[in-house]
Specification:
The chain is of the alpha+beta class and 118 residues long. 20% of the residues lie in helices and 39% in strands. It has one domain. The strands form two sheets. It has a six-stranded antiparallel β-sheet.
């Protein structure tokens, strides 16, 4: 499944326990989403948004993981968006996207509308 957030399609969800982004992978924007509510009427709550900026991110041992899990009231998963643009444009796209998601959804309380499910 994927989620459309701020007009961009994020792939996921991936489990935090076994998801690692390596420094040699294409930089991405990631969002942590808590799937809450009933299975037939889920609510997707945005917990965190960040730019990997080409850094290694190991979600299982991430220093913010306990905070993320405490904020989630449902199943927590990570979703990714990788811009198609070349550098330096991709950096600008990622930076602007993180700012736009923060503005629209105000994590950890923002709800991604169900019609945003792709």
């Amino acid at each position: 499944m994927s989620l459309k957030i701020a007009g961009y399609l994020f792939t996921g969800p991936y489990d935090l326990a076994d998801t690692v982004l390596r420094a040699n992978q294409k930089p991405s924007v990631f969002v942590l989403v808590s799937r809450e509510g009933k299975s037939y009427d889920p609510v997707f709550r945005l917990i965190e948004v960040a730019d990997t900026a080409g850094q290694r991110v190991e979600f299982a041992t991430h220093p913010e993981r306990a905070r993320w899990e405490a904020a989630a009231e449902g199943e927590l998963g990570v979703y990714f968006f990788r811009p198609d643009a070349a550098e330096p444009e991709a950096t600008e796209v990622r930076h602007n996207l993180v700012a736009e998601i923060m503005r629209l959804h105000r994590p950890p309380h923002g709800i991604v509308k169900v019609d945003g499910v792709g």
